[in-house]
Amino acid sequence: MATPTLTVTTEEAAGVGVLRDLLDGEVVTPGDPDWDAARGAWNLAADQRPAAVVFAESAADVVAVVDFARENGLHVTTQGTGHFAMTLGSFADTILLKTSRLRGVEIDPETRTARVEAGVLWEEVSLAAAEHGLAALAGSSPDVGVVGYTLGGGLGWLARRYGLAANSVVAVELVTADGRRVRADRDNEPDLFWAVRGGGGSFGIVTAIEFASTRCRRSTPARSSSPSSARARF
Q1: N or C: which end of the chain has fewer CB within 10 A?
Q2: pTM: predicted TM-score of the whole model, two decimal places
């Protein structure tokens, strides 16, 4: 079933346009020339028509959007790539917050952990981890977003041996509905940490996650439709 559409008035778009003065990121409204490109998703069947689209450049931008929406009676829907855009439902009175510009990747070879921001794709993590002889619990496609995949559970090539990707998460950085920036792990906000690992993105807007990786002893090219595929021993 197609996503319901919404016609946004000029007055509504102008109100949301105030966000431009609050953010480092970009705000796109229905009257802008790049509106159709901004509201699009990876899933081209999704006809997304929110009140505005925001491309966040930082966690501070996410806080500002959440605060603005709360104070103005608007909803916020977050999107990394838009693979599951058809499941989001109506965008009435909604700001579509895109995290695709949050692209930081940090690999710690000593602790075998990675910290990735909300817009990172699995190909970026896999290539960065491989430089240190490590592999993460990625999915079967290199262009899937790390955060969305992991928050939904994350069933990948290595799941039979290492479990779901959600099980490898050691910390989550997110913004709550009241605009707080929280780092949730086993010791800090443990209930929230339990909920987000496999529970999806309904408990806050995730800006970054940290997860464990595994040692990859050897890899050789393998035939696959994926451009970054490899056969490895773990």
Answers
A1: N
A2: 0.84
